[in-house]
TrEMBL record:
GO terms for molecular function: metal ion binding; taurine dioxygenase activity. It comes from the Bacteria. One of its GO terms (cellular component) is cytoplasm. Belongs to the TfdA dioxygenase family. GO terms for biological process: sulfur compound metabolic process. The keyword Metal-binding applies. PANTHER family: ALPHA-KETOGLUTARATE-DEPENDENT SULFONATE DIOXYGENASE. Keywords: Dioxygenase, Iron, Metal-binding, Oxidoreductase. SUPFAM superfamilies: Clavaminate synthase-like. This is Taurine catabolism dioxygenase TauD/TfdA. Residues 6-270 form the TauD/TfdA-like domain.
Amino acid sequence: MIISAMPGPFGAIVEGIDLSVPQSDDILRGLIAALHEHQILAIRGQRLTDADYVAFGHQWGRPLMFHLQSHRKDEFPEMIRITNAAATPERYRDGAKFWHQDSSYEAVPASVTMLYGAETPDEGGETLIASTALAYDALDDAMKAKIDGLVGLHCLGGSPALPGEKIPFIPENTARHGIVSHPLVMRHPVTGRKALYLSGSAFGAEGLEIDEGRALINALRTHCTQPQFVTRYKVETGDIFLWDNFQVLHSATPIEYSDEPGKRRLLFRISTKGVPALCDTADLAA
């Protein structure tokens, strides 16, 4: 297994491993440690069955069931289908074109998300990634003192939109999930590293007036998505692309919806909750 740095401020590429065959605990621990160190990980050259992919997903935690049942794969509901089929309803097109961390509108958010490239277009389909860990590190001491200890308020589609964002807001879905709270500064459950936790769902903070809280969230989301904290990756066929939701935001980029050869995209997403069974958790009280 060879791990090398991606171009840009963070991220790593993994080659020389075949995940269609069982891997030792040491290899899996190496992959987990690499993700926690590099924040995003692209494992190239894979040819997996659905069962292989789901088994790999379970190594990272407890796979979640996406709230839109129509997006799940029938035989393997852990897998979420992402496609640019021409028949895709307008309300679902470019629905992830905003900065977010997965399932942040739930009381227990997603920890790791991965995409497996089954078919990818010749052009387009990149994912943007912003490091909330690097963004936190870059804050001045006064801002860190202000936000450390604050509890953010989240609801599905709740964040103030940044320029160019398309944050989906479906009232019945938002009402079903309600309002949840998460620390505005999240400590990583394995490494203990601090990072901002904002997603596309944070709309305020406990103890702050509505306008003050919303302005703070907008300022921090703007800060996180500055170019020095952002990289991008295009999932190619055979890639497994993982990100650590406790350290990064991500956003889709616009894609053409087409059934033509060379333009089609089919990815399968798995998101997990909790920490890998092979990991020890950090002492967050230290």
